[in-house]
């Protein structure tokens, strides 16, 4: 059973590599792509996802605007240390949120291995 699992992993790894090559041939890579690859936990596909889903980063006036768009911050209103409500949690780009969570998990796995 272990040999079968190893064979499946090798087959899928090969197919993933082929898909990555095909996608990278079709997409015009920006300078930001190379910078994303230097971040811990971000590989080719996550960098590509972040680059394409973000678009022109200059459209975000502040870092907080981008963080909010990526769904990386809570959407609650607090006044005088009391919760006054929540905003629209589903606002923003769910794919960017997913990509950053995946990157954090990969970086964490790399740290503990």
Give the secondary structure arrangement, pairings included.
Layout: H1 2-26, H2 31-36, H3 44-54, H4 63-69, E1 76-79, E2 82-86, H5 94-112
Antiparallel strand pairs: 1-2
Helix pairs in contact: 3-5
Structure description:
This protein is mainly α and 113 residues long. It has one domain (28-112). It contains 5 helices and 2 strands. It has helices at 2-26, 31-36, 44-54, 63-69, 94-112, and strands at 76-79, 82-86. A two-stranded antiparallel ribbon has the order 1-2. The longest helix has 25 residues, at 2-26. It is extended, with a radius of gyration of 18 Å. The two termini are 25 Å apart. The model has no long low-confidence stretch (mean pLDDT 87).
Brief characterization of the structure:
The protein is mainly alpha-helical. It has helices spanning 2-26, 31-36, 44-54, 63-69, 94-112; strands at 76-79, 82-86. The protein is built from five helices and two strands.
Question: Which structural class do the helices and strands define?
Answer: mainly alpha
Number of domains: 1
Distance between the termini: 25 Å
Q: Specify Rg, calculated over alpha carbons.
A: 18 Å
Helix share, percent: 55-70%
Key words describing this protein structure:
113 residues, mainly alpha, 60% helix
């Amino acid at each position: 059973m272990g040999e079968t699992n190893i064979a499946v992993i090798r087959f899928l790894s090969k197919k993933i590599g082929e898909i990555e090559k095909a996608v990278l041939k079709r997409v015009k890579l920006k300078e930001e792509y190379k910078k994303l690859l230097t971040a811990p936990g971000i590989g080719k596909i996550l960098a590509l996802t972040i680059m394409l889903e973000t678009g022109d980063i200059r459209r975000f006036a502040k870092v907080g605007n981008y963080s909010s768009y990526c769904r990386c911050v809570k959407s609650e209103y607090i006044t005088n240390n009391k919760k006054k409500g929540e905003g629209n949690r589903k606002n923003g780009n769910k794919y960017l949120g997913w990509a950053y969570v995946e990157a954090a998990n990969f970086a964490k796995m790399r740290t503990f291995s």
